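Notes from the 1:1 (GR / supervisor)

We went over the backlog. Supervisor wanted to see one worked example end to end before approving the batch request, so GR pasted a single chain during the call. The sequence is below; no edits were made to it. Supervisor asked that the structure be written out right there so they could see what the output format looks like.
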Amino acid sequence: MVRFARNRNVVVAPNYFLNMAVLLQLREAHKRFGDQIVLEGADVSLVDDVKVGFIGRNGAGKSTLMRVLLGEEELERGEIITHPTLRIGYLRQHDPFQAGESALDFLMRDSGQPEWRCGEVAGEFELKGAYLEGPVKALSGGWQTRVKLAALLLHDPNLLMLDEPTNFLDLRTQILLEHFLRAFNKAALIVSHDREFLKATCSQTLELSRGKLTMYTGKIDAYLEYREERREHDRRVNATVIAKQKQLQRFIEKNRANASTASQAKSKAKQLERLQTTEIERDEPTVHMRAPRVDPKQGTVFRCTELAIGYPDHTVADGITLEIEHGQRAAIVGDNGQGKTTLLRTLVNSLDPVAGQMKWGHGVEIGTYAQHVYTSLDERMTVIEHLEYNSLPGTTRQELLAMAGALLFRDDQIQKKVKVLSGGERARLCMAGLLLSNSNVLVLDEPGNHLDVETVEALAGALELYQGTVVFTSHDRHFMRRVATCVIEVRDGSVKNHFGDYDSYLAAIEKEVDDSEVARGKTPAAKSDKPGKVSGESQRQGQRDQRKAEKERKNVEKKIAKLDDEKRALNADLLTETDPDTAVKLHAQIQALEVELSEAEERWVELSADQEW
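Structure output shown during the call:
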């Protein structure tokens, strides 16, 4: 009979339940840093053709787990089992390039492949001409990422491990990466806070929370919905259990001292001992965030005519004539290197215009979130002092602590000095201070880069309710779609309003990428080819089937527990029974229970295997 562990966050099904090879398996992993638990009895298996989106709150330990799987960190306890054919391709965050070498030189040096093969693979990412043959260190971060991805492919990995691959990638490069991953018919583990990217590339979702790993056979949106449904179910069950506990406790206290009802009270006490609430999985308190409270205004908030932006020796774009209305949330879009950040810096007077006129409306208070802002914070202040300094008069300490907590500064962290904060922590602190201000115009450059999925969602919700004006740029399509009410495109030396919403802009860029692939003789990666991509009704049916299976699995778990209790009680009776006939009957009952228990356990394994894989 199959034996298995119960009440585990991840069920590792026996290999004979699977029709695919397990490339890498983590078992009973334990690791901590000081008081922080990173892994506590964590289990996960990665199989040969499944792409897994890996999520978790900031600080949960996702990057640590990646290093463990790569062999760069040691476990305190547990084991990692690898398949003999495992070949990991890891997207390096550091700079692997040598001074003066071209992208082609790097690809040939890194892979040992001939020039023709390196050029062929580089073409998958539109690396050609000066981008392929010029100095690789002169390329933008997005183009350097394309070079690294081409290098990965040249090593023929069967497991890709990507840690925040979309950071600083423009939309076009993200789409190219999605097409590459959809065509890559091997395994991948992808850490990302970008829900849209994970939804487009991954058919399964893995979450790390309080040291435990949960694998879900479905995309991230379905998983987040399932997770909340499960927690809501547990909350309702717990409320019922607590009410019953109170009822039993009142009965016991009322009757245990009375001789005629003492036996009933004792029986109720045993019932009370068996009633247990379910621990609701939640790795952090729910993030609540609010934007600055401002009075709504009407009319034009910003106007420019024949504006030219850039630097004394280089004009990035010219002939710019734009108007932005009060209350709009204007998304600035365009490829990397086209001038989005230059435009934002000009709007907030961090750069002087090269030519032309620009003017903000009367009574405008601009709040800025950008790289050059959060690198210039007062290093002498603590976190809480910075927030107090930047908040509106009358802001309560509770409000300050709530905003600090929403941006992941909790407990003793609010007393940390700015000078000891990491770049990501400074960015979050800048965002917290901005949201506590009285700014009626927010200019945000990549606000989600240092935030996890839940915090990005909270920020999007806050900006949707904001009564002021937002001008922002982001590479997160889910965030852009939620927040943007108009689109301004920076491209080929010009800045223009895009006549359509963000979805229409996205469709236009996808068509350009598809046309480019057709021109190279490659069949575009159709959306229907996305892993797990199905119609809306099919997806809803799949979710209903999954919930039904989960309900059955929980019922089977309860049945197993009940049968175990009955078997234990019968065994105890058998040990003390002196009458042979009664003993024979007890033995027969135990055998019948064992058959029923075995069948229930087999069914549990089947349901668990289906759920996890």
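Supervisor's comment: The chain has 19 helices and 18 strands.
Batch request approved.
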